[in-house]
Amino acid sequence: MASSASMCRTTYLHALASPARRANLGKAYIRLLRITSRCSRCYSVQTISKQDTRKQRVVILGSGWAGYSFARTLDPSKFDRIVISPRGYFVFTPLLASTSVGTLEFRAVLEPVRRLPGGVRFYQGWADDVDFSQKVIRVEANAVGGLPSEVLSSTVPVKPEAKKGDIFNVGYDKLVIAVGAYSQTFGIPGVRDHAHFLRDVGDARRIRLRVLSLFEQCSYPTSQGSSSTHVAEGSLSEADKRSLLHFVIVGGGPTGIEFAAELHDLIHEDLKRLYPELMPLVRITVYDIAPKVLPMFDQALAQYAMDTFARQGIQVRTKHHLERVRIADGVLGSAHGGLSIKIKEYSEEVNAGLVVWSTGLMQNPFVEHLVGKEFAIAQDKDFQKGEDAQRHRLVKDPKTGGILTDAYLRARITDSATSQPPPDAAGDTPKPVMSDVFVIGDCAVNENDRSLPKTAQVAAQQAGYLAKHLNKATQDGSLGAVDVSSTWKPFKFRNWGTLTYLGGWKAIHQSSADELRGWVAWVVWRGAYLTRSMSLRNKMMVPVYWFVSWVFGRDISRF
Amino acid sequence: MASSASMCRTTYLHALASPARRANLGKAYIRLLRITSRCSRCYSVQTISKQDTRKQRVVILGSGWAGYSFARTLDPSKFDRIVISPRGYFVFTPLLASTSVGTLEFRAVLEPVRRLPGGVRFYQGWADDVDFSQKVIRVEANAVGGLPSEVLSSTVPVKPEAKKGDIFNVGYDKLVIAVGAYSQTFGIPGVRDHAHFLRDVGDARRIRLRVLSLFEQCSYPTSQGSSSTHVAEGSLSEADKRSLLHFVIVGGGPTGIEFAAELHDLIHEDLKRLYPELMPLVRITVYDIAPKVLPMFDQALAQYAMDTFARQGIQVRTKHHLERVRIADGVLGSAHGGLSIKIKEYSEEVNAGLVVWSTGLMQNPFVEHLVGKEFAIAQDKDFQKGEDAQRHRLVKDPKTGGILTDAYLRARITDSATSQPPPDAAGDTPKPVMSDVFVIGDCAVNENDRSLPKTAQVAAQQAGYLAKHLNKATQDGSLGAVDVSSTWKPFKFRNWGTLTYLGGWKAIHQSSADELRGWVAWVVWRGAYLTRSMSLRNKMMVPVYWFVSWVFGRDISRF
């Protein structure tokens, strides 16, 4: 990319590809076209002249923990990295809850894909389909239109069907599918329309605006039922305000618990000073269907979390089942966006001003599409001979619907009695795989360890494993398939431990080695995030924001 | 407010105002109601018991340079400050252009009204009407609904007529009208719908998203007119991209010039590295109807600005008249939001991806309403005797439509043959005024100096003048009218000089004492902003952002 920058400002390549020259160039033009198609107009002359030893083109679908971490680790001197994702940035999700209340600014948890060191080609769009036999991905553009935060909600589905972007094709040598998962709403009515998710920075922004707007709405004079024109007269009764200032979180996993904790901090460290009269009306409730929240923690630590929440006045209701979310009746719902939620265990509905949904994942529709389709693959001998090739399918994990991979994270494909297994799948594991298609992150299921949780940790470790092995394997820049079985060790997940923030400068931390709780765990929590996969910019800005929020309070402006 | 915080968490006042007690309290209840109405439920018991010596209630309409600066300077130990504004923050407008390209983050130029030191009561809403005889303001709430940046555009009108908020009344002892002005589009078709303004932080956010989105849209493969499925095939031709990457600014005042300069910096310092292939297609053009841009600067400095722009490749077209803005034809307009603008001097339309409108102000509809209505005032003797009082009107400045004030910034009212002038207007200036209604900022016209420009400097000086004089006048906290004529000096504007940034670390500065240009002026430009009316938080954050943008580049994530 460094050389391409200087190249592209010249008209050299331009002139080569101009219609006038095309006719004269003949075969050379066809070759040129094939190369320019690989990275549009921005391929350097250097690369063109060294076509035989050109770098392999690795296309990465997704810019989450799996896709971004992989792209970040893959050596740009050995591979051309092409990232395709509907959003142009990676979100450092463990700090997303902090941004939803303004402890951190949104941009402090974002890393733009285009800023990856070493140069990267990025197309903002949704992968629509993959032609595994031609090694081409069909992409629908997503840079057009209005505010991306409105378009790119992580509600299901994220792709607004009304707005169809341009369609274009991108070819690959190796493909890494890391498209993640969507929020699962279990078909509960109203969740998709009225609840807030907390998976992307757009979600965090909407939650922040909503929380601050609710306090602003409730700061107007209370309805007194009197008719004096001299009295400031609002439309909301105190009961209405109590409804609007009820913050409901559904799901007692780390995301839900951390959001509740951060919200509590916002309210008690900042809003208390600005809206003192509203404090008696505020409530935070966490509902979960399980008998215990934070299932990944020991009983003792989970109990410590519950005790901390109890002291902070955050209600935790386990074994409670949400059945419906709807707009509340009357002015509360129509003018103030108040919600009514039906809990199975309660006879009456509960009112709330905000419902945050933080439980459940479902497969991305793109993954559902991929596992459903038949294809021939280029490595098949029949296919290469030009005969009718054997048809395959990706292997779908029956439980989760994800794409099954072998121990080296390659996509498994169905075999057939009449076809030979693909050449590189010989040896110890005769199960057929695609040697040039890898699947990592939430959409992947490792056939050797199907119980791996869908967490950032697993995704990041898979990404690191794959990128490092590819970096090592391709010393010569050859285009051939990687000889996995002889040099790669199977992927193995190592649990680095789990951290959850509980509010009031307290946290819990659990790993195989130790357990921490209270402010010690809080220090570990903050320290851990500073050493994680962040750019230097954000390593600098996160502490600055922490300091500024601590000294001056969180910013409450809405725009 | 400090004491009210502790009070409101008790149920004392609550209990007093509960329906059960109301019946028993009789007259005491009426009095209580009158007081609680003054600041809803949050008035401290202390204040209630000292009712006779309670602080004067100063209601400030607006949170711009005039309103916010006034509220900031007014002594909270002597006055109860109540701010009513459709937005909850003050915008440090001179740095707004910097936020629209990401040199600074949005929040670095915002000061939340509720964070004013000393406590302030704030109602987010539009002043709808003022009853000058009863001294009551009717307010329409504006905290309800979706994203305020979508609602609170500074396009004209800012108030979305579809969404009617709650209406409530707020009483005042003194009123400061500082509602500012709206953007004037001179009725040019399409400006209101398709151009971007740059007056609020929501405008800056939309411009930032649009600029980055345009580069993203143009980064897709170019349409080749070929049908090969292997070639990445986009829908935009190179000419289309050239159209979308044409950035048009209408208005060559400091705002327009600074936006062009900041945009140039963004493109040449950051986007050049990320989208090198698009650089030959980018153009920035400033159109102005006047023969010369930056009319407040000397010819030499304005020429220096033009020379700087010419070197940077920014086109400046003076004596050019915009006649229409419309959505461009074809896919360029329908799918990519491209615009076509008609310039009177050109035979053909010019395409653009973004049009920023930065010229002209018009009166706020609220001001138009106020100057049109008749009212009686409480100070009139007839009125106090209960008889039919003399009717007055605010005096409208015929040229600008603003509210005329006397030299002490009090609202001038029309006199009548049969009425006595209000008591405090006697003496040297027999022209009638309202002694308790002040008008400052863009909506005010000083009858002693009608040529004062509508700038932040004038607004801030008027605000400071008024607040300091009121602080001095009210030593005893009495409710009586201020004896202006004996102790106040007439307001006089002092020109502190003008600064404009030109891009590439160059600026121009002009004051009565000196003229500066180049990087020296740039240093003055940056230094000046750090010493201006900002909170400590932003005095800290602005240099941090400058540093981070300089080292790491501006952030390009859109959300």
UniProtKB/TrEMBL annotation, chains A, B:
<keyword id="KW-0560">Oxidoreductase</keyword>
<keyword id="KW-0520">NAD</keyword>
<comment type="similarity">
    <text>Belongs to the NADH dehydrogenase family.</text>
</comment>
<dbReference type="InterPro" id="IPR036188">
    <property type="entry name" value="FAD/NAD-bd_sf"/>
</dbReference>
<protein>
    <submittedName>
        <fullName>NADH dehydrogenase</fullName>
    </submittedName>
</protein>
<dbReference type="InterPro" id="IPR045024">
    <property type="entry name" value="NDH-2"/>
</dbReference>
<dbReference type="InterPro" id="IPR023753">
    <property type="entry name" value="FAD/NAD-binding_dom"/>
</dbReference>
<keyword id="KW-0285">Flavoprotein</keyword>
<keyword id="KW-0274">FAD</keyword>
<dbReference type="Pfam" id="PF07992">
    <property type="entry name" value="Pyr_redox_2"/>
</dbReference>
<feature type="domain" description="External alternative NADH-ubiquinone oxidoreductase-like C-terminal">
    <location>
        <begin position="497"/>
        <end position="555"/>
    </location>
</feature>
<feature type="domain" description="FAD/NAD(P)-binding">
    <location>
        <begin position="57"/>
        <end position="365"/>
    </location>
</feature>
<dbReference type="Pfam" id="PF22366">
    <property type="entry name" value="NDH2_C"/>
</dbReference>
<dbReference type="InterPro" id="IPR054585">
    <property type="entry name" value="NDH2-like_C"/>
</dbReference>
